[in-house]
What does this fold into?
Amino acid sequence: MIPAIDRDRCTGCGNCHEVCPPGAILIKDEIAQIEEEFCEECGFCAPTCPAGAITINFPTLYNKNT
Amino acid sequence: MMQERYPHIFSKGKIGSLITKNRVKYAATETNFPYGDGYVSDREVAYMEAQARGGAGIVTTQGTYPDPKGEGKGFKGMMAIYDDRFIPGLARIANVIRKNGALSCIQILHCGREGGVELDYCLMPTVVPQRLSYFKKPREITKEEIKQAIRDHVQAARRAVEAGFDMIELSGIVGYLISTFISSYTNKRTDEYGGSIRERCRLMVEVIQGVKAQVGDKTPVGIRLCGAEFLDDRGGNTFEESIESFKIAEKAGADYLSVTIGWHESSIPVITRDVPMGHWLYVAGEVKKAVNVPVMMAFRQFLPHIPEKAISDGIIDFWEACRPMIADPELPNKIASGREEEIIPCIACNLCFSRLYYHQPITCSVRPSLGHEGEPDWGYYGFKKVGQPKKIVVVGGGPSGLQFASIAAKRGHKVKIFEKNNVMGGEILLASKVDSGEEELLRPIRYLEGECVRLGVIIKKGITASPEIFMEENPDVIVMAAGAKPRILPGISQEMIWTYRDIIGKGKMPPRKSVIIGGCGIGLAVAVYLLRHERYELTIIEEGSRLGKDVNPFYLWRFIQILKKNKATIFTGSTIVDLKDGVLMVKAPKGEQEIDFEGIIFTQRDEVIADFNTLKGYPRGFYFIGDAKKPRRLNNAIHDGYRLGMVV
It folds into this structure.
């Protein structure tokens, strides 16, 4: 469950970049980007986003891929 | 057979009317593996199967929430039992446990003040301000809702029996609904559900009695309760009241009692490495003296001789294992067959725990295959041998190199490790010296080194890998696991510079008045190490807005406590503007500031990828893992090694 970043909502404030333990989030052109190779899927970033742009989608039985 | 060495652990036990094959119980742990809608996922079934095959006498499921509104749901991926439509999924778990020779136990868990994960409120006996950020806004539970909660538990118990479970466990610990009623910290009610300890236990008694009446004598019903809350600073239960709650539970009909320690708000460490193993057994001993039903306990009993002695001394009847069995479900089998050195050792890093609160599936620092037991590629039940074994040279015998080597060797490759030191372990050798209890971090290194030896990996100690060695060995693949290098900023004369390696590794102590550059894990470790030894005037400079972003919260709060007690000056959100001998200019959020110092300690690290540009084109394969790829933590090193080992 790698967090998804909503590019339209992201303000590039950098909160997620700061809390990311493995340093997997970069701010490029004022938008956060997750380097999937380093993402640990810890989820720390999602609650820090003031714009609610980071979501972690929990799968459900009838929609396994979301 | 080692069963003889641990006769008590491997003796038969009795709970209610049931006989268990040994005294090991895999205790309930949330995983966040099930789907977000409460249904059981294949991943969860595969995980429970691994636990059942591991040899425990009793295997407990994670908590299932019993109410349709989700007030009892405390984790996004928690299993549900509020409707009959969940029975088939739960039955899969019961079947898979029974088929593998263990007794199945299902936990029914209403999370109370930790619940309402998808709602905007949580239920409490009385509204007491919440301090931890992941709690929802509390609302007082009405009497009708209490009655409904009891009915929910009873119906859940009926479904549990229909799904085929042998035992039922209720949970009243750490701030879940039943515990909030029992504790005087959270229960200030004036009706019959509040008051003295007897009245505060009324909800628990009614739930136990209701469930017992529903399921009858064939299905034992146990309960987990808190033996010592350590909430004295907030008006929590006294030790006597906690023991009394166990007696009341026994009288209400509980068939076994599981003793736990502490709430999430407790002001002392409970399950971290600084707590010696077996430390909490005295609490279980007090409970055992007060009751006649079987008593069990988990909590920092990672090595089998501890529960063995406790059972023989009559302190507990069953050994509950959570984290040690997350790290290695095969724990009971390996102990029984005398393969203790093959156990993947839990290091109490609590990565599993902290991830739950960020609504992610649990992962394990020392066992990357956690959550992938059902996927053959991950090799939990063994790897398929590769068709064409490769000759692989690994540079560096730290956690990533050792983990990689063991997995690659399991798949049939010919692996050789070059370690420049005379001992394996890399930076873990430093980490193990930081504080008391940290030597436990060496356990995975010893395990991995043992794995490599058992699998025929050739280990060359005291040899620094060089281009000549690569030429001579002529391997198919080179894996660079040599770690990171300290980042040393220019502008200061050599005699003022210290690195974390000088201090923790070589024991060179810096001057009293020193500045630590970097406030992440290593910076804090150096600070704690120094402050434990002598008095220091430390200043910590961190670019990020908070200290220790890569440190687990379970450990971080204690580190910060030590820093505050010793009056360390902390600059967060601060960048270095100018650095000269003895003077440092930082740009802090409050403006620029000048700091004078006698010594400067560098704790940041850089990856070494750029240093090996010449080898990048190594024709047949050249990889970086662990800190060499990007400086991170122990779990990243082990996971890097494991994942590369799977595919190389």
Remarks:
- The radius of gyration of chain A is 12 Å.
- Residues 27 and 48 of chain A are 15 Å apart (CA to CA).
